[in-house]
Design a protein that fits this description.
mainly alpha; 18 helices; two-stranded antiparallel ribbon; 2 strands; 377 residues; 1% strand
């Protein structure tokens, strides 16, 4: 049977035409896809700028479906889920990113950091810690260490917090000497005196200008009956950290009486009072006076320079009134009115407390409580 070349002559142009048509259809579909993906992306961005997060999420999901390999869209979607509190969905997005084999090293580090933030925001501290550890030796190491530090503070794991603070110091992320001193003091507070004292002395070396290690060490010495050591520690603290004198004034006065150094105590406290006009220093000075009238004169001197309801109330407590039978009610009313003025106030969040805190119970900030009372601010 002879082969008919006519079919070959017709077949070649037809095959060429079909191939050309198929390529045009593929290009057309590609253009459509490329137009749809940016359109959905920009629509989502517009919703986001208008704080319409629900619509933004829908638009980004549409964009991700059109181009599932676009990592930036996944990051945007995961961050939106986290901001909305949908942490499980944010985790799934970022875990999906980490499972991909085509991510660059920078994108993988970024996805790992985002996943750690998801766990942190969700309160899954163990999983957050594990995720943050994987960021060591990456561009996110500093941020990861700060996040781990916050976790250890929150869980009161002071030993590991101290280790992280030391690493942050080495990386040049700031001066964490004062923070390290607090961590050592927190550890010392839970230990017997013989184990606590070395930690407090280590805290002094970590932050020579921090008052807390000296104050805690003096309290330890006082409890052990070492009044000479207490006096030396507090006298040195008054010289080294004068701004903290209101916090140590009463203890300094007690140590001065216990060691027979009343005159020296009066000199230190008198000099400090002239600098700060503090009520705590004033009352410590008053406690060193044996004559009640001299004590009351200190309050008068304070009132000459400061308008103080607290000082006026203290002075009035020893005054004999014309209607003495009403003295108790009047004094009680004044003492009640003074209570809010004798509190300490956090400079970061405004949380007020009867006692001075090294770490604010409200906002968790360190060293945010001034040594002065509300009336003196």
């Amino acid at each position: 049977m002879d082969f008919d070349l006519t079919w070959l002559l017709w077949g070649l142009p037809i095959a060429f035409g079909l191939g050309w048509l198929a390529s045009r259809l593929d290009l057309r579909q590609l253009r459509i896809d490329n137009k749809q993906a940016p359109k959905a992306y920009f629509k989502g961005l517009n919703f986001l700028l208008n704080e319409q997060q629900d619509q933004a999420i829908d638009a980004f999901i549409e964009a991700v479906k059109s181009d599932p390999d676009t990592s930036e869209l996944h990051f945007a979607l995961g961050n939106l889920f986290r901001r909305r509190g949908e942490y499980d969905r944010a985790v799934r997005v970022h875990e999906h990113l980490l499972s991909r084999g085509d991510l660059t090293k920078a994108e993988r580090h970024r996805a790992q950091h985002a996943l750690a933030l998801d766990f942190l925001k969700a309160g899954l501290l163990d999983r957050a810690e594990d995720a943050l550890r994987k960021l060591d030796k990456t561009p996110y190491e500093g941020q990861a260490l700060l996040a781990r530090l916050a976790i250890y503070e929150r869980t009161r794991d002071w030993k590991r917090a101290s280790e992280i603070a030391a690493r942050l110091n080495e990386l040049g992320q700031g001066d964490f000497g004062s923070r390290q001193a607090h961590y050592l003091c927190e550890q010392a507070a839970t230990l017997p005196a013989d184990q606590a004292e070395p930690l407090l002395r280590q805290a002094k070396k970590a932050a020579p200008d921090a008052p807390r290690p000296r104050i805690d060490l003096a309290a330890l010495q006082w409890a052990a009956g070492d009044f000479e050591g207490t006096w030396r520690t507090l006298a040195r603290a008054a010289q080294k950290v004068p701004a903290a004198l209101p916090l140590i004034a009463r203890s300094l006065a007690d140590a001065a009486k216990a060691t027979g150094r009343v005159a020296e105590g009066q000199e230190i406290l008198g000099t400090g009072y002239e600098l700060f006009r503090s009520l705590d220093v004033l009352e410590a000075l008053a406690s060193l006076e044996s004559d009640p009238e001299v004590t009351r004169d200190w309050y008068v001197r304070h009132l000459e320079n400061e308008t103080s309801l607290v000082a006026a109330t203290r002075w009035l407590a020893g005054e004999r009134l014309e209607h003495q039978e009403f003295h108790g009610q009047i004094q009680g009313a004044l003492e009640h009115a003074c209570k809010p003025l004798t509190r300490y106030r956090c400079a970061a969040c405004g949380f007020e407390a009867k006692q001075h805190f090294w770490q604010c119970p409200g906002c968790q900030a360190w060293d945010s409580y001034p040594a002065r009372r509300v009336e003196e601010l």
